[in-house]
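User: I'm curious whether this sequence folds into something compact or stays loose and floppy. Could you predict its structure so I can see for myself?
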Amino acid sequence: MRWTRSLRLRTAGAVTAVTLLGGALATPAVQAAEPSHGTKADRLTDLVNPFIGSENEGNTYPGAAVPFGMVQLSPDTGHNTGYDYSETQIRGFSTVHLSGVGCGLGGDLPVLPTTGDVTRTDYAKYAAEFGHDDEQASPGYYRVGLKTGIGAELTATARTGVQRYTFPATDKANVLLNAGQSLHRTVATKVEIVDNRTVRTAITGKGFCQGTEPYTVYTVTRFDRPFTTSGTWNGDTVTEGSKESSATTGRNGAWVRFDTRADRTVEATTALSYVDARGAAVNLRAEGGRSFDRVRDAARAAWEDRLDDVRVQGGGETLRRTFYSSLYRSFLAPNIGSDADGRYTGWDQKIHRAVSAGKAFTYYQNWSLWDTYRTQAQLLALLAPHESRDMALSVLRIDRDAGWLPKWGYGTVETNIMTGDPVTPFLTNAYQQGLLKGHEEEAYRALKKNADGVPPTASTALGREANREYIAGGFAPYLKGRKHAKPGDSDYDHGASATLEYALSDGVLAEMARDLGHDADARRYARRAQNYRSVFDASTGFFRAKDASGAFTGSADPARSEGFHEGTSWQYQWLVPQDIAGLVGLIGGRDATNKRLDAFFAYDQLLKDPAKTAREVWVDGPYDYYNADKYNPQNEPDLIAPYTYLSTGQPWKTTDVVHAALTLFTDSPTGMTGNDDLGTMSAWNVLSSIGIFPVQPGAATWGLSTPVFERVDLTLDRRYYPNGRLTVRAPGTSDGVRYIQSARVDGASYKRTYLTTDALRGMRELAFTVGAAPSDWGTDPQAVAPALK
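Assistant: Here's the prediction. I'll summarize afterward.
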C-alpha cells in the first residue's frame, strides 16, 4: 500500500507549503521537530549529490531550489553558466539558474556578504575564496564557508530565495546586491533602497548563445533586521547614503551594512517576479516571513515527497546515489513563471492571468524543447502529470499570446536556439499521456498552424523556418553561409537534421490528427513523415544534406557530413522513430542494420570492457559533436539510438549498450555526460535505469530493457493511472546477469519489446526473468513496435 503513504505525504507537503508561504494557517515561532517524512537514516534526499555535473561542462548548479521553482539560488564562480567545481572563488549567490544549459543564462542579482569598506564594484574583483572542504549541498539547501570568515547558507521557496549569513564580530558587515552583472548581458538595471530593511531591483537582460529579445526580472529583498547604513554604486563610484541608482549597461548595485558584534547572523528573503515590482512584493508576502530553518525544512520535505514516488531496491549505494541525483535534476525545470496572484508576462510582453476554462493553473516557462521532448517530458508526464498538464497549457498560452508555438523559450522570450520542430512531439506526448483533456482541439489547431506554416517576419519565432521548401520538395535545404533572418539557430544551417526532425514531428502529429478525426490531415502528415527518405543517399547508404536545387552536398563520408545539428550522419541515421522498419529497409535489412549498429556502438569492444568503451571510444569531449562515426551518449540526437536493436531482432544488445552508457553517470562532479539540458540527460538515466524508455517521442510507445535495479516501485497519480502504482521487477539483475529471458505483465507472459501508455495505465507489475546469456525473448518480428501510420 505504498501509494497511501505517498498521498499522505503529498497532502502534508501541501499544508506545509501553505503554512510557510504566507497562508492563513498559524505557525509555531520555533523550529518544529524532524519533518514527518522520515528519519535521516532513510531520507532519499540524503542520496542526492547536487554537485554531480558541476565540472566538465555538465553545467549543473549546486544551490537551493524546490521542484520546478522560479528561484534557483546558487553560487556563481565565474563559469559562463554559473558554477564550476574546479574554480575557487564565489562572485555571488544569484537567483536564477537553469540546470545544464550550454550558454550563459540567468545569474540575476548575485548577492555576496563582505566585511570592511565597500570600494570595489566588479564581482570578479571582490569575489571571495572558498574551498570544498567547507561546502555542503542537498536538495533545497546549500552552505559554504568563505575564506573571508563569513558563512553563507541558502534555501528557497517556489518564488523566493532565502539567505542566512553568519559574519565575524564587526560593525562593517555588508551585503552587496549586484544588479549590473550576471551570466547574460544586462541592458538596463535599477536599484532602489526602499527603507532600512528593503531593497528593490529591476534587471533587463538579453543573451544566451546567439542572443535574444530582452526580458526583465524584478526582485525585492527583505532583511530580518534593519541595516545601519547603506548606499549604491554605479560604475566605479560608490555613494554612501544614496537610495537609488540606474544604468543602461555596466556595473550597478546596492549595498547594506549591519553591526554584527552582538548578533552575528543576518537573514534575507529575495522574491522574484517576471511581471512587475508589485508581483515581487506579492510573492514576498505570499512566501516570505518565515525563518531560514523552517523554509529549509519545507524545501527538504518537498523534495523528499517527490523522490519518494520512486523507490528502488538492489544495486549499490553509488548506483542509488547517481539514480536519485538524476531524479532530482529531472524535477528542476521547467520553472514557475506566474506570480502568487496568478499573473504572468506573456511572450507578447503583456500581463495575463493563468486561467484556462475558468480554472486557475500554474504558468511555467523555460522550454529547452529540442532536448526535453526526447526524455524529460515523458518522465514528468509519468511522475508529475498534474504539473505536466499545466506545462502543456503554458505552451499553448505562448501560442495564444504571441501567435506561435515556442522552440527554445527563456523566461518571457523566444531564443530560437536549436532547430527542427521540437514543440510538436512535446505537445503530442502531452496529448497521448491524457494531459490535454478539454484542450485537444486547441492544441491541434496550434500544432497544425506550426506544421503547415512559417512565422511572419514580425514574429520573433522561427518555427519550422524551412517549411516552405520542405512541404514543396520534401526536404529542408542546407544553405551554407545564409544570413540569419532572426536571432538564434537556423534550420537552413542544418537542413539534413531539420528534415529528419520535421518528419518525426509529422509522424506523431498524424497520429493525433487521426485520433481526433482529422483524417485528411492525418494522411497528409503521414505522407510527410516519410520525407526522411528524401535525404537518404543510396550511393552512400546514409542521410545527406541537399542544397536548394535538391543535389546532395557536403562530404560523402558520413563521419564528416555537413548540415546536421550537433552531430553527423552516423549519429542522426537512427532518428527515424516513426518508421524504424522503413529505415531498416533503406539500410538493407536486419542483418545489414545490425552490422552497422554494431560498428556504431563498437559492440565487440563494449562486450570486453563496457566502461572503457563508453569513456574512450564513445565520449570525446562534451562539445565534440562532429567528425565522428560512433555513438555519442552525451548529446540528444543519439538518446534513442541504443533502443534501435529492439526493432532489429537483437534486443539484448540494447541492454548491453544502455548499461554501458549508464556507467558514465557517477557520484562525482564529473559524473554527467555533457550538458544536462534542463534534466534531459538525467531523465535518460532515470528511464533507462527503470527499464522503460520513450522510443517514439511524441507517441505512446515505451521500449523495454533490463532495469539496473531488482525492484522499482513507482507511485503514480490515480487521476491518470487508476492503479496508483507500477512495480518493475528484475530479480538478480547485475552487470553479469542482465539479459531478459522472459517478461510478464501482471503475471501473464509478455513477448513484445514495447508497451503502450494505455497498457501502463492498466497494469500493476512488469516482471523480468534475467540470465547470464541472451535469449530469444523479443526476437520475433511481431515483437517490435509498429511504425506510426
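Summary: Residues 495-515 form the longest helix (21 residues). The two ends are 40 Å apart (CA to CA).
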